[in-house]
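[Primary structure, fold]
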Amino acid sequence: MTFDLGSHGGFILASYAFTALVMAALVLNAIRDRRAQRRALAQLQAEDRR
């Protein structure tokens, strides 16, 4: 099975690759932010117990 993308094939593939890269960056940023929020919440809860 082959796809004939014509003369715009390079642009189409580059667009898909860029989109995949942006989506991966957004997912990684969300994971990092979730971890930071959990740490901040744990710190606030620890301060509240004192």
